Every structure is written in structure tokens, then in C-alpha cells.
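Section 5: illustrative case.
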């Protein structure tokens, strides 16, 4: 015998989780997109645009945390990729501005987000140094 209420609840829960997943992925893709734009802006020394993109990302990330909870959003690979890219962009911004690399206090990010972001930051610093050398700024 099958408990129909159990099956119906299972279907409902699955649909809910899939809806959440699609929303988290969509918003995470926005963060990823803005992160890349912020990094490109930083390489062009367009701090104003980079800061605006970083602010947009922080707003989206805070919305995700509030709506779904940190435990739920960390289950999604798209979110994990997005926060690593965000950390990379944020830390690159700090380095270019001559500020200290430190925890980002406005968001709840785990150590793996920082480690991934810092590893990618090194590549961006090499690119920045190469661009500066190409421009004659040794």
C-alpha cells in the first residue's frame, strides 16, 4: 500500500526545492556576471563602475541569504562559484585601492570562498602587473 499523502508531500517538497534551486542559480549567475564586469573595470582603472558592481553583488548575495538561508544556498554549485568570483573581485578592489585584505564583514562567507577567491586573485594581480608593464609603468 502507498501512502498518497506522503507521495503528494514528496512531490510538493521536490517542486519547492527545484524552484528554489532555479532562483538561486539565476541570482548566482547575476553575481558571477557582475563579478567579471567589476574585475574588467578594475583592470581599466574604472573604480567607480567596479564599486557599483560590487555593491550590486552584495545586495544580491544578502537577498539570497535572507530568502533561502546560508545553509540552503551553499548547497548549490552555482552559488559557490559566484561567491568565489565575488571574493576575487572584492579583494582585487581592495588591493588596487591599497586597502588591507580581510574578511568581508557584510556577508557570511566560509573559508573555502576566501581560499578560492585569493587563489584567483593572484592571476588577476599578474594580469594587472602585465598590463602596467605593457603601459610602461614598471
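Designed sequence:
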Amino acid at each position: 500500500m502507498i501512502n498518497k499523502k506522503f507521495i503528494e508531500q514528496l512531490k510538493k517538497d521536490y517542486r519547492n526545492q527545484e524552484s528554489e534551486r532555479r532562483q538561486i542559480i539565476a541570482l548566482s549567475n547575476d553575481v558571477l556576471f557582475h563579478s567579471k564586469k567589476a574585475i574588467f573595470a578594475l583592470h581599466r582603472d574604472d573604480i567607480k563602475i567596479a564599486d557599483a558592481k560590487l555593491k550590486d553583488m552584495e545586495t544580491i548575495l544578502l537577498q539570497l541569504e535572507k530568502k533561502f538561508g546560508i545553509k540552503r544556498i551553499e548547497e548549490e554549485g552555482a552559488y559557490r562559484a559566484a561567491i568565489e568570483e565575488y571574493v576575487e573581485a572584492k579583494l582585487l578592489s581592495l588591493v588596487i585601492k591599497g586597502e588591507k585584505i580581510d574578511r568581508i564583514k557584510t556577508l557570511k562567507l566560509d573559508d573555502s570562498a576566501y581560499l578560492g577567491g585569493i587563489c584567483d586573485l593572484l592571476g588577476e594581480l599578474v594580469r594587472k602587473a602585465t598590463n602596467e608593464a605593457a603601459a610602461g609603468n614598471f
